[in-house]
C-alpha cells in the first residue's frame, strides 16, 4: 500500500512530450494571446499532475487574481473531506501562502537532511509517503507583482521542486525576470500548437474538455475516500521485544511516530530542558484518540507498573480507554491507577485533589531524606519504588464547560499542578479538540496553564487553534493531513516544528501486548474505574455496609461519592433532633428509598418500617413492594404498608404515642412515598418530624415540589430535616432546599445532590442507588 502512495507525476505528458514537474521542475505557460488556449493548456497540466500522483499526495494551490476560473472544473476535489484544492483570489492571501511554502520547503529539507536530492527520491528510500507534494498554480500578470513577492517566488522556484513544491505559472513571458524564467520549463501555444521555449512544436496535444477535468477531480476525490492511509506501524517506532526494561528515574520517554526516517520520541521529566508537561490538540477526525493510544502503549511497553502509573480521564465517550479494563474477563492495564470513563467534572476535581495529596506526601518524604525531587530520591533510595505518574486528560476543556465553583477550583489546581508536580514526578498530558476559548487558563506573561507546558503536539486544526496551541505566529497545524502532527518541544517556537507522521494504534498489535502485560502484572491491583453513567445498587457497597454493622451505629448509605476509590456516602441516623430525610424531585426516588431502607435493616435487626403510600396504583412501586418487604423481613425487620387513609390515621396515632416511647423503643422509620398527593396531611405530622428522631421515629419522605414539602412540614419545619436530597430537582428549588442561594446545580440523570446540615459543610453530588435488586449485602434476602 505504501508503494502505491509513492506514485508521483514527476513528468506529465503533453501531447508527444514528457514535461518535468513534481519534485523536478516548474512550468511556465505563456499567456500572451487573448484567447483561452493557454488556460486550457494550464488545466491540461493540472489534470495530468492529479492523474499521475497517488490520491491525497498532491495539494493544488491556485492564485487566480484575474478570475480566469481555471480551477473551477476541479472544485469537487475537496468533496472527500480532505482539502486538496485551495483557491486564493486576494493578494494578501497569496503572500501568506508564500510564507507557508517557504516553511514547507525548509521543513522538507530538514527532514531529508541531504540524504536524497529530491523528495521523490527520499520517499523511495524510506518507503513511506513523507510530507506531500504541492502544485502552486499562479494565474496573474507576473510583471505586476511587487518586488518582494517576485523575490520570494524566485527563491521558491529554485529551491521548491526538490522539496516537492512545484509552480505552474500562467502569465505573459514578456516582462518576466530572465532569472526567474531560468527555473521554469516554458510552454506556449501558438495557432493551436504547443511549443517549448525554443519554439519547437509539441504535437499530439488536444485540450481536455470540462467534463474530462471534472471527471478527474471526481475520481481523485472518490479514490481518496476509499484509499487506506499508509500506516507507520507501532512496531516501527517502539521495540516490542523487551517490555518493562526502562527506568523512570530521569523521566519517561515514549515514541509517537516518525519525522522522515527518524523515530520521534518525547521525554517528560527532563530536568535539563525542564520539559514536564504536554499539550495535544486536533480537530475532529484528525487522529487525537489514535495518538493518545500510541502514547499510552509506548509508555506501558517501556515501563513496569513500579516505574509508571497512569491516571487516564476521558471527558467524552470514553472509547479510547475502554480497552484498558475488561469487566467480562477481568483483564486490565497494570500501569493504570485510575480510568475515568465518561468522566465528569466532579470526578476530575477529585482526581486533581488526590494528586495534590500525593504531591504533599512525596514532598514530605523528600524533605525527610534531604533531597529536592524524585530523581534525587531514586538515586538515594534505589530499592524503594516511587513510580512517576502520568495524568492524561482527553477533552479537558469539558471541565470548564460551565463557569462555576467547580471549574474555578479545577482551573486553580491545574495551573498550580503543572507548576508544582514536576518535582515529585507527576506529569500532565492535556488533550483537546479546542483550547482557544480557555482564555482563563492562559494567564498573562506565561504564568497560566499553557505557559507551563513546553511540549506541544498539534494535529490538523484551524488557524486560530494552531495559534492557540503553538504560538501566535505558528500556523503549522493548518497545513497538515490526517494523522500528521506538528511536534514542538519549545513552547510553540516556529523553528522548533517537526512535522511528524503519527504511528497507527493497530489493535491487532496492541491487544496481544496488553494481554502480556496483564499476565506479568504480579500483585498489581486493578485500576479504579469511574463510569459516570453506570447505574449503581447497594450491593456494590457491601464491604462498607459490613463495616457499619461492626461499629454498632446506625447510618444511611445514599450512594457513591464522585471521587477516586469512591466511598459510599454514609450519614449518621441516630436519635438526634433533625435526623429525618427529605427527598425532592422527579428522579428515580423509589429505588433510592428502598435501598436506604435496606442499608438500615442490614445494620440493626428489629427495625420497624412503615410505608406511607400516597402513590395509588403505581407500577414502579408495585414492582418493588414485595421484594422489599421480603428482604427487610429476612433481615429481621418489620414491614407494613398503608394506603392514603391508613397513612393519615397512622401518623396521628404515632404522634400521640411519642411521649410514651423510651430509649428501649424500637426504631420506626416512616417511608413517605408521593407525599405531595396527601391533601389532608394532619398537623401531627409536624410533631413527628420535630420530636420523633429523639425517641427513634424518623421520616424518609419524597416530595415532587418544594411548595408541597414546605406546606406539609410547616413554617420552619424544614429545619428538622437535616438530610436533604435532590433528584432531578430544578435549580431554583434546589437552592431553597439546600439553603444555598449561590448553589450551582443543574438536574442530570444518575446524579443526586445531597446536603446534611450536621455532617456536610455544603451540598455534594453523588451517584445514587437507582438499581433496586432486592438484596441486602451480606444476607440471603433476595427479591427481583
Largest sheet: 12 strands, mixed
Q: Write the CATH architecture name of the largest domain.
A: 3-Layer(aba) Sandwich
If you consult CATH, what is the topology of the largest domain? Rossmann fold
* Portion in beta strands: 15-25%
Q: Any idea what the radius of gyration is?
A: 35 Å
Poorly predicted residue ranges: 442-446, 779-784
- CATH superfamily descriptor of the largest domain: P-loop containing nucleotide triphosphate hydrolases
Mean pLDDT: 90
Overall body shape = elongated
State the domain count: 3
Supply the number of helical segments.
22
Report the count of strand segments: 33
Helix content: 25-40%
Q: How far do the termini sit from each other? A: 56 Å
Care to give the gist of this entry?
This protein is of the alpha/beta class. Helix 3 (91-112) packs parallel to helix 5 (147-159) and helix 10 runs parallel beside helix 12 (405-420).
Amino acid at each position: 500500500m505504501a508503494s502505491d502512495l509513492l506514485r508521483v507525476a514527476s513528468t506529465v505528458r503533453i501531447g508527444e512530450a514528457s514535461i518535468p514537474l513534481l519534485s523536478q521542475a516548474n512550468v511556465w505557460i505563456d499567456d500572451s494571446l487573448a484567447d483561452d488556449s493557454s488556460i486550457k493548456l494550464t488545466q491540461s497540466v493540472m489534470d495530468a499532475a492529479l492523474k499521475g500522483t497517488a490520491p491525497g499526495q498532491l495539494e493544488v494551490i491556485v492564485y487566480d487574481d484575474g478570475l480566469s476560473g481555471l480551477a473551477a472544473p476541479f472544485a469537487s476535489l475537496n468533496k472527500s473531506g480532505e482539502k486538496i484544492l485551495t483557491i486564493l483570489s486576494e493578494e494578501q492571501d497569496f503572500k501568506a501562502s508564500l510564507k507557508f511554502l517557504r516553511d514547507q520547503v525548509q521543513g522538507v529539507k530538514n527532514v531529508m537532511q541531504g540524504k536524497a536530492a529530491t523528495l521523490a527520491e527520499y520517499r523511495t528510500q524510506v518507503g513511506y509517503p513523507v510530507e506531500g507534494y504541492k502544485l502552486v498554480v499562479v494565474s496573474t500578470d507576473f510583471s505586476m507583482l511587487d518586488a518582494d513577492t517576485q523575490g520570494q517566488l524566485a527563491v521558491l522556484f529554485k529551491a521548491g521542486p526538490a522539496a516537492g513544491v512545484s509552480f505552474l505559472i500562467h502569465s505573459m513571458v514578456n516582462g518576466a525576470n530572465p532569472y526567474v524564467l531560468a527555473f521554469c520549463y516554458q510552454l506556449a501555444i501558438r495557432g493551436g500548437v504547443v511549443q517549448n521555449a525554443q519554439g519547437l512544436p509539441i504535437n499530439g496535444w488536444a485540450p481536455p474538455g470540462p467534463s474530462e477535468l471534472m471527471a478527474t477531480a471526481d475520481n481523485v476525490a472518490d479514490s481518496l475516500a476509499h484509499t487506506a492511509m499508509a500506516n507507520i506501524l507501532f512496531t516501527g517506532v517502539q521495540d516490542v521485544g523487551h517490555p518493562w526494561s526502562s527506568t523512570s528515574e530521569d523521566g519517561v520517554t515514549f515514541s509517537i511516530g516518525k519525522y522522515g526516517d527518524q523515530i520521534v520520541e518525547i521525554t517528560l521529566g527532563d530536568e535539563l530542558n525542564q520539559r514536564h508537561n504536554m499539550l495535544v490538540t486536533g480537530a475532529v477526525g484528525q487522529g487525537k484518540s489514535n495518538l493518545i493510544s500510541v502514547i499510552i502503549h509506548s509508555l506501558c511497553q517501556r515501563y513496569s507498573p513500579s516505574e509508571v502509573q497512569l491516571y487516564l480521564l476521558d471527558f467524552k465517550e470514553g472509547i479510547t480507554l475502554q480497552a484498558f479494563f475488561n469487566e467480562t474477563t477481568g483483564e486490565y492495564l497494570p500501569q493504570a491507577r485510575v480510568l475515568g470513563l465518561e468522566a465528569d467534572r466532579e470526578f476530575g476535581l477529585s482526581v486533581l485533589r488526590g494528586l495534590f495529596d500525593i504531591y504533599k506526601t512525596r514532598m514530605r518524604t523528600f524533605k525527610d531524606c534531604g533531597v529536592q525531587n524524585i530523581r534525587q530520591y531514586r538515586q538515594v533510595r534505589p530499592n524503594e519504588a516511587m513510580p512517576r505518574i502520568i495524568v492524561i486528560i482527553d477533552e479537558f476543556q469539558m471541565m470548564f464547560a460551565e463557569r462555576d465553583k467547580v471549574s474555578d477550583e479545577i482551573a486553580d489546581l491545574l495551573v498550580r499542578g503543572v507548576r508544582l508536580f514536576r518535582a515529585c514526578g507527576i506529569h500532565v498530558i492535556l488533550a483537546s479538540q479546542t483550547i482557544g476559548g480557555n482564555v482563563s487558563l492562559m494567564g498573562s506573561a506565561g504564568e497560566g496553564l499553557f505557559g507551563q507546558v513546553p511540549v506541544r503536539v498539534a494535529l490538523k486544526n484551524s488557524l486560530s487553534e494552531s495559534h492557540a496551541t503553538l504560538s501566535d505566529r505558528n500556523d503549522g497545524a493548518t497545513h497538515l493531513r490526517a494523522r500528521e502532527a506538528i511536534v514542538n518541544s519549545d513552547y510553540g517556537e516556529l523553528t522548533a516544528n517537526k512535522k511528524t507522521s503519527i504511528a497507527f494504534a493497530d489493535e491487532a498489535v496492541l491487544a496481544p501486548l496488553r494481554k502480556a502485560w496483564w499476565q506479568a502484572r504480579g500483585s498489581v491491583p486493578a485500576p479504579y474505574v469511574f463510569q459516570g453513567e453506570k447505574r449503581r445498587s447497594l450491593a456494590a457497597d457491601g464491604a462498607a455496609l459490613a463495616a457499619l454493622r461492626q461499629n454498632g451505629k446506625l447510618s444511611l448509605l445514599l450512594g457513591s461519592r464522585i471521587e477516586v476509590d469512591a466511598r459510599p456516602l454514609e450519614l449518621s441516623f441516630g436519635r438526634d433532633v433533625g435526623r429525618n430525610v427529605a427527598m425532592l424531585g422527579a428522579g428515580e426516588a423509589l429505588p433510592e428509598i428502598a435501598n436506604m431502607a435496606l442499608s438500615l435493616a442490614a445494620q440493626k435487626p428489629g427495625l420497624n418500617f412503615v410505608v406511607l403510600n400516597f402513590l395509588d396504583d403505581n407500577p414502579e412501586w408495585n414492582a418493588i413492594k414485595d421484594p422489599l418487604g421480603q428482604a427487610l423481613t429476612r433481615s429481621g425487620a418489620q414491614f407494613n404498608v398503608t394506603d392514603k387513609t391508613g397513612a393519615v390515621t397512622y401518623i396521628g396515632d404515632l404522634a400521640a404515642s411519642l411521649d410514651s416511647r423510651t430509649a428501649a423503643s424500637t426504631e420506626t422509620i416512616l417511608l413517605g412515598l408521593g407525599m405531595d398527593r396527601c391533601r389532608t396531611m394532619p398537623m401531627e405530622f409536624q410533631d413527628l418530624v420535630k420530636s420523633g428522631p429523639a425517641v427513634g421515629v424518623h421520616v424518609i419522605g419524597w416530595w415532587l415540589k418544594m411548595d408541597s414539602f414546605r406546606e406539609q412540614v410547616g413554617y420552619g419545619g424544614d429545619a428538622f430535616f437535616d438530610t436533604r436530597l435532590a433528584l432531578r430537582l430544578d435549580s431554583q428549588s434546589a437552592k431553597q432546599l439546600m439553603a444555598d442561594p449561590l448553589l450551582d446545580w443543574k438536574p442530570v440523570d444518575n446524579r443526586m445532590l445531597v446536603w446534611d446540615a450536621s455532617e456536610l459543610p455544603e451540598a455534594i453530588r453523588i451517584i445514587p442507588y437507582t438499581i433496586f435488586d432486592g438484596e441486602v449485602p451480606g444476607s440471603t434476602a433476595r427479591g427481583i
